Write the C-alpha coordinates for this entry.
Amino acid sequence: MAPPEPRPLLFRNCELGGRRCDVSVRRGRIAAIGDTLMARGDEQVLEARGGALLPGLHDHHLHLFGLASALSSVACGPPEVEDEQALAERLRGATPRSGWVRGVGYHESVAGHLDRRRLSGFRSDLPVRVQHRTGALWMVNDLGAKALGLDAPDLPEGVERDAAGRATGRLFRLDGWLRERLPGSGPPDLAEVGRLLARHGVTGVTDAGADNTPRSVGRLLEARKTGDLPQRLQLLGSSELGRLDVPAGVQVGAVKILLDEPRLPQPERLADRIREAHAAGRGVAIHAVTRAELVLALAALEEAGAEPADRVEHASVAPPDCVAWIRRLGVRVVSQPIFVRERGETYLTEVEERDRPWLYPGRAWLDAGVPLAAGSDAPYGSPDPWLAMAAAVGRETRCGARLAPGEALLPDEALALFLGPLEAPGAPPRVVEPGVHADLCLLDAAWSEVRSDLRAEHVAATVCGGHLAWQAPHA
Ligand SMILES: [Zn+2]
Protein backbone atom coordinates (compact mmCIF):
# COMPACT_ATOMS: atom_id res chain seq x y z
CA MET A 1 0.00 0.00 0.00
CA ALA A 2 1.38 3.40 -0.95
CA PRO A 3 1.63 5.96 1.81
CA PRO A 4 -1.07 8.62 1.62
CA GLU A 5 -0.36 12.17 0.49
CA PRO A 6 1.43 13.80 3.44
CA ARG A 7 -0.47 16.24 5.60
CA PRO A 8 0.89 19.80 5.21
CA LEU A 9 3.21 20.93 7.99
CA LEU A 10 3.93 24.30 9.51
CA PHE A 11 7.09 24.82 11.56
CA ARG A 12 6.52 27.73 13.92
CA ASN A 13 9.43 29.81 15.15
CA CYS A 14 12.33 27.71 13.96
CA GLU A 15 15.90 28.84 13.45
CA LEU A 16 17.00 28.82 9.83
CA GLY A 17 20.43 30.10 8.87
CA GLY A 18 20.71 31.95 12.18
CA ARG A 19 17.33 33.74 12.10
CA ARG A 20 13.88 32.93 13.44
CA CYS A 21 11.09 32.19 10.96
CA ASP A 22 8.17 29.95 10.02
CA VAL A 23 8.44 27.28 7.35
CA SER A 24 5.54 25.60 5.60
CA VAL A 25 5.67 22.25 3.84
CA ARG A 26 3.17 21.13 1.20
CA ARG A 27 3.10 18.22 -1.25
CA GLY A 28 6.52 17.05 -0.17
CA ARG A 29 8.29 20.35 -0.72
CA ILE A 30 9.11 23.55 1.14
CA ALA A 31 6.18 25.81 0.21
CA ALA A 32 7.09 29.05 1.98
CA ILE A 33 9.45 30.64 4.46
CA GLY A 34 8.54 33.86 6.26
CA ASP A 35 8.79 35.78 9.53
CA THR A 36 5.24 34.74 10.38
CA LEU A 37 3.20 32.52 8.08
CA MET A 38 -0.57 32.39 8.29
CA ALA A 39 -1.88 28.93 9.08
CA ARG A 40 -4.33 27.68 6.47
CA GLY A 41 -6.04 25.36 8.86
CA ASP A 42 -5.19 22.02 7.29
CA GLU A 43 -1.60 21.85 8.57
CA GLN A 44 -0.07 20.02 11.44
CA VAL A 45 1.73 22.74 13.40
CA LEU A 46 5.12 21.97 14.94
CA GLU A 47 6.21 24.45 17.59
CA ALA A 48 9.97 24.71 17.14
CA ARG A 49 10.62 27.18 19.98
CA GLY A 50 13.77 28.44 18.33
CA GLY A 51 15.12 25.00 17.48
CA ALA A 52 17.31 24.83 14.38
CA LEU A 53 15.73 23.48 11.20
CA LEU A 54 18.41 21.65 9.22
CA PRO A 55 18.33 19.84 5.91
CA GLY A 56 17.78 16.16 6.80
CA LEU A 57 20.98 14.22 7.34
CA HIS A 58 22.31 11.92 4.63
CA ASP A 59 24.20 8.78 5.55
CA HIS A 60 26.44 8.32 2.51
CA HIS A 61 27.48 4.73 3.19
CA LEU A 62 25.57 2.05 5.05
CA HIS A 63 24.14 -1.44 4.55
CA LEU A 64 20.38 -1.59 5.04
CA PHE A 65 19.90 -5.37 5.00
CA GLY A 66 22.85 -5.81 7.32
CA LEU A 67 21.48 -3.19 9.69
CA ALA A 68 18.06 -4.84 9.67
CA SER A 69 19.63 -8.22 10.52
CA ALA A 70 21.94 -6.73 13.13
CA LEU A 71 18.93 -5.40 14.99
CA SER A 72 17.96 -9.03 15.63
CA SER A 73 21.45 -10.44 16.29
CA VAL A 74 23.68 -10.87 19.32
CA ALA A 75 26.66 -8.58 19.72
CA CYS A 76 29.92 -10.58 19.73
CA GLY A 77 32.45 -7.77 19.95
CA PRO A 78 33.50 -4.72 21.94
CA PRO A 79 32.19 -2.86 23.82
CA GLU A 80 29.39 -5.32 24.67
CA VAL A 81 31.63 -8.38 24.61
CA GLU A 82 35.28 -8.05 25.60
CA ASP A 83 36.50 -11.58 26.35
CA GLU A 84 36.01 -15.26 25.65
CA GLN A 85 33.82 -15.92 28.65
CA ALA A 86 31.46 -13.08 27.77
CA LEU A 87 31.29 -14.38 24.19
CA ALA A 88 30.44 -17.90 25.34
CA GLU A 89 27.72 -16.56 27.63
CA ARG A 90 26.21 -14.42 24.88
CA LEU A 91 26.08 -17.26 22.39
CA ARG A 92 24.68 -19.71 24.94
CA GLY A 93 21.94 -17.30 25.93
CA ALA A 94 21.04 -16.22 22.40
CA THR A 95 17.59 -16.81 20.97
CA PRO A 96 17.73 -18.39 17.52
CA ARG A 97 16.05 -16.80 14.54
CA SER A 98 14.96 -19.13 11.74
CA GLY A 99 16.83 -21.91 13.52
CA TRP A 100 20.18 -20.09 13.64
CA VAL A 101 22.02 -18.08 16.25
CA ARG A 102 23.37 -15.03 14.50
CA GLY A 103 26.22 -13.02 16.00
CA VAL A 104 27.77 -9.80 14.71
CA GLY A 105 30.67 -7.48 15.39
CA TYR A 106 33.30 -10.10 16.26
CA HIS A 107 36.92 -9.04 16.61
CA GLU A 108 39.98 -11.17 17.48
CA SER A 109 40.59 -9.09 20.60
CA VAL A 110 37.66 -11.01 22.15
CA ALA A 111 38.81 -14.62 21.76
CA GLY A 112 41.33 -14.84 18.94
CA HIS A 113 40.92 -16.85 15.77
CA LEU A 114 37.49 -18.54 15.58
CA ASP A 115 36.64 -21.60 13.53
CA ARG A 116 33.93 -24.28 13.54
CA ARG A 117 35.57 -26.27 16.32
CA ARG A 118 35.93 -23.38 18.72
CA LEU A 119 32.44 -22.04 17.97
CA SER A 120 31.02 -25.52 18.64
CA GLY A 121 32.71 -25.34 22.02
CA PHE A 122 30.62 -22.26 22.80
CA ARG A 123 27.38 -23.61 21.44
CA SER A 124 26.66 -26.93 19.77
CA ASP A 125 22.89 -27.46 19.97
CA LEU A 126 22.06 -25.07 17.11
CA PRO A 127 23.75 -23.79 13.98
CA VAL A 128 25.69 -20.63 14.82
CA ARG A 129 27.09 -18.02 12.50
CA VAL A 130 29.18 -15.08 13.66
CA GLN A 131 30.17 -12.17 11.46
CA HIS A 132 33.51 -10.43 11.77
CA ARG A 133 33.12 -6.73 12.38
CA THR A 134 34.73 -5.91 9.02
CA GLY A 135 31.80 -7.66 7.34
CA ALA A 136 34.24 -9.64 5.19
CA LEU A 137 34.13 -12.91 7.12
CA TRP A 138 31.52 -15.28 8.57
CA MET A 139 32.43 -18.04 11.00
CA VAL A 140 30.12 -21.01 11.58
CA ASN A 141 30.09 -23.88 14.08
CA ASP A 142 29.90 -27.59 13.16
CA LEU A 143 26.11 -27.62 12.88
CA GLY A 144 26.31 -24.46 10.80
CA ALA A 145 28.90 -26.05 8.52
CA LYS A 146 26.64 -29.07 8.16
CA ALA A 147 23.57 -26.96 7.40
CA LEU A 148 25.50 -25.09 4.72
CA GLY A 149 26.96 -28.27 3.23
CA LEU A 150 30.52 -27.03 3.72
CA ASP A 151 32.00 -30.50 3.52
CA ALA A 152 30.78 -31.02 -0.04
CA PRO A 153 33.17 -30.56 -2.97
CA ASP A 154 32.75 -27.74 -5.52
CA LEU A 155 32.22 -24.88 -3.12
CA PRO A 156 33.01 -21.31 -4.08
CA GLU A 157 36.37 -19.71 -3.44
CA GLY A 158 36.09 -18.05 -0.06
CA VAL A 159 35.23 -21.28 1.80
CA GLU A 160 38.45 -21.71 3.78
CA ARG A 161 39.93 -25.20 4.03
CA ASP A 162 42.63 -26.60 6.28
CA ALA A 163 45.69 -28.54 5.09
CA ALA A 164 43.63 -31.73 5.01
CA GLY A 165 41.03 -30.06 2.76
CA ARG A 166 38.38 -29.85 5.43
CA ALA A 167 36.29 -26.65 5.65
CA THR A 168 37.32 -24.62 8.69
CA GLY A 169 33.96 -22.90 9.02
CA ARG A 170 35.41 -19.59 7.91
CA LEU A 171 33.73 -17.98 4.90
CA PHE A 172 35.26 -14.96 3.22
CA ARG A 173 33.14 -12.48 1.22
CA LEU A 174 30.34 -14.95 0.64
CA ASP A 175 27.30 -12.94 1.73
CA GLY A 176 25.37 -13.47 -1.48
CA TRP A 177 26.09 -17.22 -1.48
CA LEU A 178 25.18 -17.49 2.21
CA ARG A 179 21.89 -15.71 1.71
CA GLU A 180 20.90 -18.24 -0.94
CA ARG A 181 21.78 -21.20 1.27
CA LEU A 182 20.15 -20.01 4.45
CA PRO A 183 16.58 -20.93 5.23
CA GLY A 184 13.95 -18.36 4.32
CA SER A 185 14.36 -16.11 7.30
CA GLY A 186 11.55 -13.84 6.17
CA PRO A 187 12.13 -10.32 4.97
CA PRO A 188 14.35 -8.28 7.26
CA ASP A 189 12.40 -5.64 9.11
CA LEU A 190 13.22 -2.52 7.15
CA ALA A 191 10.49 -0.58 8.95
CA GLU A 192 12.52 -0.81 12.13
CA VAL A 193 15.57 0.47 10.23
CA GLY A 194 13.53 3.32 8.77
CA ARG A 195 12.35 4.35 12.24
CA LEU A 196 15.81 4.08 13.74
CA LEU A 197 17.30 6.33 11.05
CA ALA A 198 14.44 8.83 11.31
CA ARG A 199 14.98 9.06 15.06
CA HIS A 200 18.51 10.28 14.29
CA GLY A 201 17.38 12.89 11.77
CA VAL A 202 18.42 10.86 8.73
CA THR A 203 16.34 11.51 5.60
CA GLY A 204 18.56 9.98 2.92
CA VAL A 205 20.86 6.98 2.67
CA THR A 206 23.26 5.38 0.24
CA ASP A 207 23.22 1.60 0.42
CA ALA A 208 26.78 0.52 -0.32
CA GLY A 209 26.21 -3.21 -0.86
CA ALA A 210 28.72 -4.42 -3.44
CA ASP A 211 26.44 -7.31 -4.35
CA ASN A 212 23.34 -5.18 -4.87
CA THR A 213 21.63 -6.46 -8.01
CA PRO A 214 18.25 -5.58 -9.54
CA ARG A 215 16.85 -8.71 -7.87
CA SER A 216 18.40 -8.29 -4.43
CA VAL A 217 17.28 -4.67 -4.00
CA GLY A 218 13.63 -5.53 -4.69
CA ARG A 219 12.80 -5.46 -0.99
CA LEU A 220 14.39 -2.06 -0.57
CA LEU A 221 12.28 -0.62 -3.38
CA GLU A 222 9.21 -2.25 -1.88
CA ALA A 223 10.01 -0.73 1.52
CA ARG A 224 10.31 2.70 -0.10
CA LYS A 225 6.95 2.25 -1.79
CA THR A 226 5.10 1.23 1.38
CA GLY A 227 6.75 3.95 3.42
CA ASP A 228 8.51 1.41 5.69
CA LEU A 229 11.70 3.10 4.56
CA PRO A 230 10.83 6.81 4.38
CA GLN A 231 14.39 7.89 3.53
CA ARG A 232 15.50 8.88 0.04
CA LEU A 233 17.67 6.08 -1.26
CA GLN A 234 20.73 5.78 -3.47
CA LEU A 235 21.96 2.33 -4.43
CA LEU A 236 25.56 1.50 -5.10
CA GLY A 237 26.25 -1.98 -6.38
CA SER A 238 26.80 -4.19 -9.37
CA SER A 239 26.96 -3.04 -12.97
CA GLU A 240 23.60 -4.73 -13.69
CA LEU A 241 22.02 -2.26 -11.32
CA GLY A 242 22.18 0.24 -14.20
CA ARG A 243 19.25 -1.59 -15.81
CA LEU A 244 17.03 -1.06 -12.78
CA ASP A 245 13.84 0.88 -13.25
CA VAL A 246 13.73 3.04 -10.12
CA PRO A 247 10.74 4.77 -8.58
CA ALA A 248 10.73 8.37 -7.33
CA GLY A 249 13.01 8.90 -4.37
CA VAL A 250 15.45 6.19 -5.45
CA GLN A 251 18.52 6.57 -7.62
CA VAL A 252 21.23 4.27 -8.87
CA GLY A 253 24.71 5.46 -7.97
CA ALA A 254 28.22 4.25 -8.59
CA VAL A 255 29.43 0.72 -9.30
CA LYS A 256 30.89 -0.59 -6.05
CA ILE A 257 34.31 -2.22 -6.29
CA LEU A 258 35.74 -4.08 -3.31
CA LEU A 259 39.49 -4.37 -2.89
CA ASP A 260 40.88 -6.98 -0.51
CA GLU A 261 44.56 -6.67 0.20
CA PRO A 262 45.61 -10.31 0.07
CA ARG A 263 43.92 -10.69 -3.33
CA LEU A 264 44.37 -7.39 -5.10
CA PRO A 265 43.64 -7.26 -8.84
CA GLN A 266 46.13 -6.07 -11.43
CA PRO A 267 45.90 -2.27 -11.83
CA GLU A 268 45.07 -2.65 -15.55
CA ARG A 269 42.19 -4.99 -14.74
CA LEU A 270 40.85 -2.52 -12.18
CA ALA A 271 41.22 0.33 -14.70
CA ASP A 272 39.15 -1.71 -17.17
CA ARG A 273 36.36 -2.05 -14.66
CA ILE A 274 36.43 1.69 -14.06
CA ARG A 275 36.26 2.36 -17.82
CA GLU A 276 33.32 -0.05 -18.13
CA ALA A 277 31.41 1.77 -15.39
CA HIS A 278 32.11 5.14 -16.97
CA ALA A 279 31.03 3.88 -20.39
CA ALA A 280 27.72 2.86 -18.78
CA GLY A 281 27.30 6.38 -17.41
CA ARG A 282 28.16 5.46 -13.83
CA GLY A 283 30.93 6.37 -11.45
CA VAL A 284 32.80 3.87 -9.30
CA ALA A 285 32.87 3.61 -5.52
CA ILE A 286 36.09 1.87 -4.59
CA HIS A 287 36.40 0.31 -1.15
CA ALA A 288 39.96 0.99 0.07
CA VAL A 289 40.91 0.58 3.73
CA THR A 290 44.64 -0.08 3.65
CA ARG A 291 47.41 2.08 2.25
CA ALA A 292 48.12 -0.47 -0.51
CA GLU A 293 44.44 -0.64 -1.49
CA LEU A 294 44.24 3.13 -1.69
CA VAL A 295 47.36 3.43 -3.82
CA LEU A 296 46.05 0.75 -6.19
CA ALA A 297 42.65 2.48 -6.41
CA LEU A 298 44.25 5.81 -7.23
CA ALA A 299 46.64 4.33 -9.80
CA ALA A 300 43.72 2.66 -11.57
CA LEU A 301 41.59 5.81 -11.43
CA GLU A 302 44.50 7.75 -12.87
CA GLU A 303 44.91 5.30 -15.70
CA ALA A 304 41.20 5.07 -16.52
CA GLY A 305 40.63 8.80 -16.08
CA ALA A 306 38.72 9.79 -12.95
CA GLU A 307 35.27 11.39 -13.13
CA PRO A 308 33.47 13.55 -10.57
CA ALA A 309 31.03 10.70 -9.83
CA ASP A 310 33.90 8.50 -8.66
CA ARG A 311 34.32 7.97 -4.94
CA VAL A 312 36.69 6.27 -2.59
CA GLU A 313 34.96 4.53 0.32
CA HIS A 314 36.74 4.68 3.69
CA ALA A 315 40.26 5.76 2.59
CA SER A 316 41.06 4.71 6.17
CA VAL A 317 44.83 5.22 5.84
CA ALA A 318 45.53 8.34 3.80
CA PRO A 319 49.06 9.74 4.02
CA PRO A 320 49.65 13.25 2.61
CA ASP A 321 50.81 12.06 -0.83
CA CYS A 322 47.53 10.15 -1.26
CA VAL A 323 45.51 13.17 -0.12
CA ALA A 324 47.24 15.32 -2.74
CA TRP A 325 46.76 12.62 -5.37
CA ILE A 326 43.01 12.37 -4.68
CA ARG A 327 42.74 16.12 -4.87
CA ARG A 328 44.43 16.06 -8.28
CA LEU A 329 42.11 13.32 -9.52
CA GLY A 330 39.04 15.22 -8.30
CA VAL A 331 37.60 12.14 -6.59
CA ARG A 332 35.19 12.24 -3.63
CA VAL A 333 35.94 10.61 -0.30
CA VAL A 334 33.29 8.97 1.88
CA SER A 335 34.81 8.51 5.33
CA GLN A 336 33.60 6.97 8.62
CA PRO A 337 34.60 9.18 11.54
CA ILE A 338 32.60 6.86 13.81
CA PHE A 339 35.48 4.36 13.60
CA VAL A 340 37.76 6.82 15.39
CA ARG A 341 35.50 6.29 18.38
CA GLU A 342 34.53 2.65 17.92
CA ARG A 343 37.78 1.17 16.63
CA GLY A 344 40.33 3.74 17.72
CA GLU A 345 41.57 1.56 20.57
CA THR A 346 42.39 -1.31 18.24
CA TYR A 347 43.91 1.03 15.68
CA LEU A 348 46.27 2.36 18.32
CA THR A 349 47.58 -1.12 19.02
CA GLU A 350 47.25 -2.90 15.68
CA VAL A 351 47.84 -0.42 12.92
CA GLU A 352 51.48 0.07 11.95
CA GLU A 353 52.89 3.04 13.74
CA ARG A 354 53.85 4.81 10.50
CA ASP A 355 50.19 4.70 9.36
CA ARG A 356 48.61 5.93 12.60
CA PRO A 357 48.90 9.67 11.92
CA TRP A 358 46.97 9.16 8.68
CA LEU A 359 44.01 7.20 10.07
CA TYR A 360 40.60 8.49 9.06
CA PRO A 361 41.78 12.03 8.38
CA GLY A 362 39.34 14.93 8.48
CA ARG A 363 41.19 18.21 8.42
CA ALA A 364 43.68 17.02 5.79
CA TRP A 365 40.90 16.34 3.27
CA LEU A 366 39.22 19.70 3.81
CA ASP A 367 42.48 21.64 3.70
CA ALA A 368 43.31 19.97 0.41
CA GLY A 369 39.89 20.82 -1.00
CA VAL A 370 38.78 17.20 -1.41
CA PRO A 371 34.98 16.74 -1.35
CA LEU A 372 34.50 14.86 1.92
CA ALA A 373 31.34 13.17 3.18
CA ALA A 374 30.57 10.69 5.92
CA GLY A 375 28.71 7.45 6.24
CA SER A 376 28.10 5.25 9.25
CA ASP A 377 28.93 1.96 7.51
CA ALA A 378 26.15 0.60 9.74
CA PRO A 379 25.86 -2.11 10.95
CA TYR A 380 29.69 -2.14 11.15
CA GLY A 381 29.58 1.28 12.77
CA SER A 382 26.82 2.82 14.87
CA PRO A 383 24.02 4.22 12.68
CA ASP A 384 23.95 7.37 14.86
CA PRO A 385 25.43 10.22 12.76
CA TRP A 386 25.66 12.44 15.84
CA LEU A 387 28.17 10.07 17.43
CA ALA A 388 30.17 10.26 14.20
CA MET A 389 30.07 14.05 14.21
CA ALA A 390 31.24 14.12 17.81
CA ALA A 391 34.09 11.75 16.88
CA ALA A 392 35.08 13.92 13.91
CA VAL A 393 35.28 16.91 16.26
CA GLY A 394 36.78 15.30 19.38
CA ARG A 395 38.84 12.51 17.70
CA GLU A 396 38.29 10.51 20.89
CA THR A 397 38.33 6.74 21.14
CA ARG A 398 35.87 5.07 23.44
CA CYS A 399 38.41 5.00 26.26
CA GLY A 400 39.24 8.65 25.84
CA ALA A 401 42.53 8.37 23.92
CA ARG A 402 42.84 10.77 21.00
CA LEU A 403 43.56 9.60 17.49
CA ALA A 404 45.43 12.01 15.20
CA PRO A 405 43.96 15.01 17.05
CA GLY A 406 45.28 17.39 14.39
CA GLU A 407 42.62 15.95 12.07
CA ALA A 408 39.75 17.36 14.18
CA LEU A 409 36.93 19.20 12.40
CA LEU A 410 34.78 22.06 13.62
CA PRO A 411 31.19 21.11 14.51
CA ASP A 412 29.82 22.88 11.41
CA GLU A 413 32.25 20.97 9.21
CA ALA A 414 31.29 17.70 10.86
CA LEU A 415 27.61 18.42 10.28
CA ALA A 416 28.32 19.28 6.63
CA LEU A 417 29.69 15.75 6.10
CA PHE A 418 26.07 14.59 6.34
CA LEU A 419 24.40 17.38 4.37
CA GLY A 420 25.65 16.90 0.80
CA PRO A 421 23.34 15.48 -1.88
CA LEU A 422 23.32 11.68 -2.14
CA GLU A 423 24.57 11.85 -5.71
CA ALA A 424 27.41 14.23 -4.85
CA PRO A 425 28.76 13.41 -1.39
CA GLY A 426 30.99 16.18 -0.10
CA ALA A 427 29.37 18.84 -2.30
CA PRO A 428 28.23 21.99 -0.43
CA PRO A 429 25.41 21.34 2.06
CA ARG A 430 21.85 21.29 0.77
CA VAL A 431 19.77 24.28 1.87
CA VAL A 432 16.24 24.72 3.14
CA GLU A 433 14.53 27.06 0.64
CA PRO A 434 11.17 27.21 -1.14
CA GLY A 435 10.72 24.52 -3.77
CA VAL A 436 13.24 21.97 -2.47
CA HIS A 437 12.23 18.52 -1.21
CA ALA A 438 11.04 18.70 2.38
CA ASP A 439 13.73 16.48 3.90
CA LEU A 440 14.25 18.10 7.25
CA CYS A 441 15.71 17.61 10.70
CA LEU A 442 14.36 19.83 13.47
CA LEU A 443 16.49 20.22 16.58
CA ASP A 444 15.23 21.08 20.06
CA ALA A 445 17.63 24.01 20.43
CA ALA A 446 19.47 26.60 18.36
CA TRP A 447 22.48 25.37 16.41
CA SER A 448 24.73 27.59 18.53
CA GLU A 449 23.81 25.32 21.47
CA VAL A 450 23.74 21.95 19.75
CA ARG A 451 27.08 22.47 18.02
CA SER A 452 28.83 22.08 21.35
CA ASP A 453 26.66 19.11 22.38
CA LEU A 454 26.43 16.87 19.31
CA ARG A 455 23.92 14.24 20.41
CA ALA A 456 20.97 12.57 18.71
CA GLU A 457 18.82 13.45 21.73
CA HIS A 458 18.53 16.95 20.23
CA VAL A 459 16.59 15.69 17.21
CA ALA A 460 13.01 16.85 17.80
CA ALA A 461 11.41 15.85 14.50
CA THR A 462 12.35 14.37 11.14
CA VAL A 463 10.52 14.98 7.87
CA CYS A 464 11.15 12.75 4.84
CA GLY A 465 9.69 13.97 1.55
CA GLY A 466 7.09 16.00 3.43
CA HIS A 467 6.04 13.11 5.70
CA LEU A 468 6.57 13.55 9.42
CA ALA A 469 8.69 10.41 9.86
CA TRP A 470 9.51 10.88 13.50
CA GLN A 471 8.71 13.24 16.34
CA ALA A 472 10.24 13.23 19.81
CA PRO A 473 7.79 12.60 22.60
CA HIS A 474 6.75 16.00 24.05
CA ALA A 475 8.11 17.83 20.98
ZN1 LIG B 1 30.53 -0.64 3.89
About this structure: Residues 61, 63, 208, 377 surround zinc ion (CB under 6 Å). Residues 213 and 241 are 5 Å apart (CA to CA).
